[in-house]
Specification:
421 residues; mainly alpha
Length: 421
């Protein structure tokens, strides 16, 4: 067990995170010298993730003793989705075309074939790492990672239930899931700072994305005004009333499905993930944000709605960073290596397809995170490009829930076959 971190009081941890974010934004605003050069390479969003990760690795703070991630993901995330979709332009999003979906499906396929290929590669020089029999078989444990990386927590739980991996060893798989997924998220965020160069290398057509950004920016300027206190209160009221309703409705829908349909109660069912309250919470919050974009509430973009949403997103990123223990990379090198090879195949395939179809880095990044990170991080990555693109991340992440269990089942079958070669 890890020792108790230096600070366990969430009020203190909150202060540390906000101080970190404040200093990051202060230094990123310096337009000359070291910091100017530094942030041209490392985006501020990545630093908001890495600094808490370093604090966690040094055992100063820890996600294991904090409820801040729960608060950020359950309260601030849905609120941000409402505020950042007020100015959505559905027609412009439609004009983005099918490349976003192609990149998402490529990411899914990369996870499906990455697992078995990683097992085959590791077995050539360390067969014991991918061995085991019965409930201890490594492929059974890896099935839970497949569920997590394609769908999310509900799909991960389904894989554990279906393939009956040894619960005493399950923690090792969770570690691989967290470490590798978070390392990949850090790389994705690093790439955002160089997206222009990456798009140039990919020879990507970014015109539809730029058009969407321009439309939202033009609209924002047209309704821009100095916000008053009442504007902030109304915006926060809209956001958190929606959060409250989303929680209530998600619990009601989930309870109704579980009480009336056996297929949703059966954890081995591919439809079991749709009983997740988190899934419904994100879906409902996004729906209300989109619905409000057809009303006068859309004009609140001119008083900083997406900026407030961005504050919530940056705080969420900091709490996600608290989950990353950099030292954990060395705790179980064999399993971590499987995860790294697996993720490399996923990344390599995304890069290859992006190059072939000339897809922008935005589609690569969001398509990947809609699989690996799900509804918690796909909107974060999308909003890092521009607040108007947040909904694209949400829509793809929701689609991940649809294909998650089916794709994870296929991946696991291939991993079992690979283990027996």
């Amino acid at each position: 067990m890890n020792p108790t971190p230096l600070f366990t009081n969430d009020a203190v941890v909150l202060g540390i995170l906000m101080l970190s974010i404040g200093l990051i934004f202060y230094t990123s605003g310096i337009k000359s010298g070291f910091w100017n050069k530094f942030y041209k390479i490392v985006p501020a969003l990545l630093m908001c993730y890495l600094v808490p990760a370093i604090f966690n690795s040094l055992n100063i703070i820890s996600d294991s003793t904090s409820n801040l991630y729960f608060v950020a993901s359950r309260y601030f995330l849905p609120a941000s989705l409402v505020l950042m979709t007020l100015s959505i332009d559905l027609k412009a999003i439609k004009n983005l075309g099918f490349k976003a979906l192609i990149m998402f499906l490529t990411g899914t396929f990369g996870i499906v074939i990455g697992g078995p290929l990683a097992i085959i590669i590791i077995s050539t020089f360390s067969p014991e790492t991918v061995g085991g029999a019965g409930p201890d078989a490594v492929w059974r444990g890896l099935s839970t990672i497949a569920g997590s990386w394609i769908g999310g927590g509900a799909n991960q739980a389904a894989m554990l239930e279906i393939f009956k991996y040894n619960p005493e060893k399950y923690g090792g798989m969770v570690l691989v899931d967290i470490v590798v997924a978070n390392l990949w998220l850090a790389i994705i965020l690093l790439g955002i700072g160089r997206s222009d160069k990456i798009d140039k290398w990919l020879k990507a057509d970014t015109s539809a994305i730029e058009e969407l950004k321009e439309k939202v920016s033009t609209y924002t300027k047209s309704v821009s005004r100095t916000p008053e206190l009442k504007d902030y209160m109304i915006m926060l009221g809209l956001a958190f009333v929606t959060v409250g309703f989303s929680h209530w409705a998600s619990e009601y829908i989930s309870g109704f499905l579980l009480a009336n349909f056996e297929v949703f109660r059966d954890k081995t069912s591919a439809l079991a993930s749709f009983s997740s309250t988190f899934f419904w919470m994100i879906t409902i919050a996004t729906f209300f944000g989109v619905a409000l974009s057809f009303t006068k509430a859309k004009s609140y973009e001119g008083t900083g709605a997406s900026k407030i949403g961005s504050i919530f997103i940056y705080f969420l990123v900091a709490t996600i960073g608290m989950k990353m223990d950099l030292a954990a990379v060395f705790e179980n090198p064999g399993l971590i290596l499987i995860g790294l090879i697996w993720m490399s195949i996923h990344a390599g395939l995304l890069i290859l397809v992006a190059k072939l179809i000339k897809a922008p880095y935005f589609f690569l990044a969001v398509g990947s995170q809609a699989n690996v990170g799900g509804a918690a991080s796909a909107p974060v990555v999308a909003s890092a490009f521009h607040p108007s693109l947040t909904s694209v991340g949400v829509l793809l992440a929701v689609f991940g829930y649809v294909v998650g269990t089916y794709a994870a089942l296929g991946c696991t079958i291939l991993m079992e076959i690979s283990s027996n070669l």
